Amino acid sequence: MSILEHHTTTSPYGTHRLAGELLKSLKMPVVLALSGDLGTGKTCFIQGLAIALGVDDAVTSPTYTLVQEYDSEPPLYHIDLYRIHSNQEALYLGLDEYLEGEGITAIEWADRITDLLPKNTVHITLKSGATVNERKITIQRSTPNPEADEA
Predict the structure, then answer these.
(1) Most buried among 86, 127, 139, 140, using CB within 10 Å?
(2) Which one is the CATH code of 2-139: 3.40.30.10, 3.50.50.60, 3.40.920.10, 3.40.50.300?
(3) Are residues 98 and 80 in contact, defined by beta-carbon separation less than 8 angstroms?
(4) Whether pLDDT at 21 is above 90
(5) Which ranges constitute the DSSP H helices of 4-151?
(6) Model confidence at 55, in pLDDT bands (50, 70, 90)?
(7) pLDDT-derived band of residue 62, with 50, 70 and 90 as boundaries?
């Protein structure tokens, strides 16, 4: 079972703020799977996470390097799978270490590796809205399973 949250932001600042609010509610380690068309704000959302974590570095999409690690507490791993076309490619590049690692693993274009994502992944879908800066953001989280905690 999962919980769906629907949000609308009207500026990059609003998207940053929403990411910071989400950060406060995350249980570490966590994988964030971001999906949406080009230009819908996936990198902007991750910039918001970095700002909330106190990262001073410029946060840009690692389209060619694939992974950017940020020294924060907890650590932030920004992954861009735009150029990846299969689960095998992702595994060959060592993505499994990030999926099972500590901290926050935020993955742009995560829909390319859905079979590899952990069950407790937080899925974030971004869509363009009615205006140039408006974004419709859906956050889907798994509900905790109390029976699993007893096992």
Answers:
(1) 139
(2) 3.40.50.300
(3) no
(4) yes
(5) 12-25, 42-52, 87-92, 95-99, 146-150
(6) very high
(7) confident
